[in-house]
Amino acid sequence: MLHTSDWHLGRSFHRIGLLQAQRAFIDHLVSAVHEHEADVVLVSGDVYDRAVPPLAAVELFDEALHRLADAGVPTVMISGNHDSPRRLGVGAGLIERAGIHLRTDPAGCGSPVLLSDAHGDVAFYGLPYLEPALVREELGAPRGGHQAVLRAAMDRVRADLAARPAGTRSVVLAHAFVAGGAGSDSERDITVGGVASVSPETFDGVDYAALGHLHGCQTITERVRYSGSPLAYSFSEADHRKTMWLVDLGAGGALTAERLDCPVPRPLARIRGRLDELLGDPRLEKHEQAWVEATLTDPHRPEEPMARLARRFPHVVSLVLEPDRAPEDPHASYAQRLRGRTDHQIAGDFVAHVRGGRGPDDAESTVLTGAIDAVRLAAALGEEAR
């Protein structure tokens, strides 16, 4: 199994188009299918970067589907929180005839794609991104939240699997934030009620969970893994090694996995210091051809900092000003004071600020949580309707 996710076709990097780099990844994916004689390709959501992708991204996706179909290797693909399930799922029944299995409807969680090898059947269950407020009733979840709806979906998976012949192996594709995973700056927040993560135990009972959403390749447990995105989409991913998982699922569910490196269009580098230091430090020579994010710590903004940096680092694309000041300095930037805080915490801080230090009580916190989640849901529905 070749496990990948989070292609984000159509996304740019600091206004730099990445379509050619994404096309190079598709070339690499198809080559890997042939080189490693893959039996199936798994794509765990966020195929596109937004619900209404640009035409060039749609064309690249169409090209990818044709090439995977021509390779004669089945592909199982789910929608992620960036995708429009309805748009991505258009023509799914017809496309399935070519071996491309699109799973975008939550109602189909318990209906697997059945494939076989020398050891018997393997059931592939596609769990598209589950927005709790939209799917709770349909899945019969007892309450809202990611944990509840994903558990309800997995209950359907386990029920279907229990009715199949003994020895049937199982794989789940899911798009979620699983506890223990490390996020980055380029993933869209899916927090509901202040809680975004679900427990790894949610996937108990299946042989492999192929996860999408987090952009770093990581192993949550031996059988629960993120492939990560094939390209870096923020400087927080500067230290990521971008890969796919090549997973061998043997008889009885025996599992081995190895990482296959993805092509890197240009390395990323984060450099920090005063402008004169960055321009003169010989240790930074290795970053001169990288995409660079420069954080300047000069007490006052230097003159023409971007132009001066570009003379040494021609691919500098991001400039951050963080003057060396004491943390309590009233001139500390708004972004610095909010760094690492959730929407719910920021709203609570505001309440405390306007009430002389008294933050929201439990009832008020519930109201704030409901209001923030309602805004998130309205935004998600609005994007889907566009």
UniProtKB/TrEMBL annotation:
InterPro entries: Calcineurin-like_PHP (IPR004843), DNA_Repair-Maintenance_Comp (IPR050535), Metallo-depent_PP-like (IPR029052), Mre11_N (IPR041796), SbcD (IPR004593), SbcD_C (IPR026843)
Keyword Hydrolase included in the entry's annotation: yes
Domain Nuclease SbcCD subunit D C-terminal, residue spans: 265-353
Domain Calcineurin-like phosphoesterase residue range list: 2-216
CDD domains: MPP_Mre11_N
Subunit structure: Heterodimer of SbcC and SbcD.
Family under the similarity heading: Belongs to the SbcD family.
Function (record text): SbcCD cleaves DNA hairpin structures. These structures can inhibit DNA replication and are intermediates in certain DNA recombination reactions. The complex acts as a 3'->5' double strand exonuclease that can open hairpins. It also has a 5' single-strand endonuclease activity.
UniProt-listed NCBIfam families: sbcd
Protein name as annotated: Nuclease SbcCD subunit D
Species of origin: Streptomyces blastmyceticus
UniProt lineage: Bacteria, Bacillati, Actinomycetota, Actinomycetes, Kitasatosporales
